[in-house]
Amino acid sequence: MDHSFMQSTLRELRLFIRSPRFWGTFAVVILIFAVSGPYGTSERMTAGQRLGYWLVIQAAAWSIAILCSVIAEVLLRRHIASMFWRMMLGAVAAALPIGYVLSLIDFIFDGTGHSMQSGLQRAFFAVPLCALFCLLTYMAMNERIKEVVATSGSTPRPPSILDRVKPQNRGELLRLSVQDHYTEVVTSLGRELVLLRFADALRETGGTAGLQVHRSHWIADAHVERLKRDNGKLLILTRDGFEIPVSRSYAAEVRRHFG
């Protein structure tokens, strides 16, 4: 696998890892299964055992389905125009490994179900569930995934603002900040002050995916580690350890964009 494939795959997987909506849905599904005890688990397991059982089951199934959907989405871009159908093919293909993993989990928990036939049976019943999972995932996250796809080309044009910095500092654009009458340009190779209005600097970020989060700060999507709160103030923690303040007027958009 080439570097661009791995990079695109990891970027899309990070969308799921960073999404509170995804983790919230995951938690709700586990609680529903643990409380209702379907497939006879309410009869043969205690409440604590059911919680542990369904946590393992759902974590395994969701992980495989997400991984297969993302891999298919990246691999089939040149062959299938629709992102939805790329993801759907990956999700349906995930049913086979999911069937055998679930069969193995059952064997570990109660000593039953681990065979070639049981794995195929579980894979068959997993197909519609995988399709439903893909549909819900696409509805919830397709806009974010499209943003990643749009910026993941193999040879993107560097933002024009990099032409203003020294050659040794022309790395990946990470963030912009106001410094008096200057704009500080921070890249993966260094930082430099440029005599340029901040508004003009924002127009020269080109196709770099990012967001203005404060009247004095812009940050690239790829440079965001996570959001945090400090005494009621919303901050962005960058991958190099800096904390960028978020203005109240930008807070809702920042939470929606990076949440």
Automatic annotation (TrEMBL):
<keyword id="KW-0812">Transmembrane</keyword>
<feature type="transmembrane region" description="Helical">
    <location>
        <begin position="121"/>
        <end position="141"/>
    </location>
</feature>
<feature type="transmembrane region" description="Helical">
    <location>
        <begin position="21"/>
        <end position="39"/>
    </location>
</feature>
<dbReference type="Pfam" id="PF04397">
    <property type="entry name" value="LytTR"/>
</dbReference>
<keyword id="KW-1133">Transmembrane helix</keyword>
<feature type="transmembrane region" description="Helical">
    <location>
        <begin position="88"/>
        <end position="109"/>
    </location>
</feature>
<feature type="domain" description="HTH LytTR-type">
    <location>
        <begin position="160"/>
        <end position="259"/>
    </location>
</feature>
<protein>
    <submittedName>
        <fullName>DNA-binding response regulator</fullName>
    </submittedName>
</protein>
<keyword id="KW-0238">DNA-binding</keyword>
<keyword id="KW-0472">Membrane</keyword>
<dbReference type="InterPro" id="IPR007492">
    <property type="entry name" value="LytTR_DNA-bd_dom"/>
</dbReference>
<feature type="transmembrane region" description="Helical">
    <location>
        <begin position="51"/>
        <end position="76"/>
    </location>
</feature>
<dbReference type="GO" id="GO:0003677">
    <property type="term" value="F:DNA binding"/>
</dbReference>
<dbReference type="InterPro" id="IPR012362">
    <property type="entry name" value="LytTR_TM"/>
</dbReference>
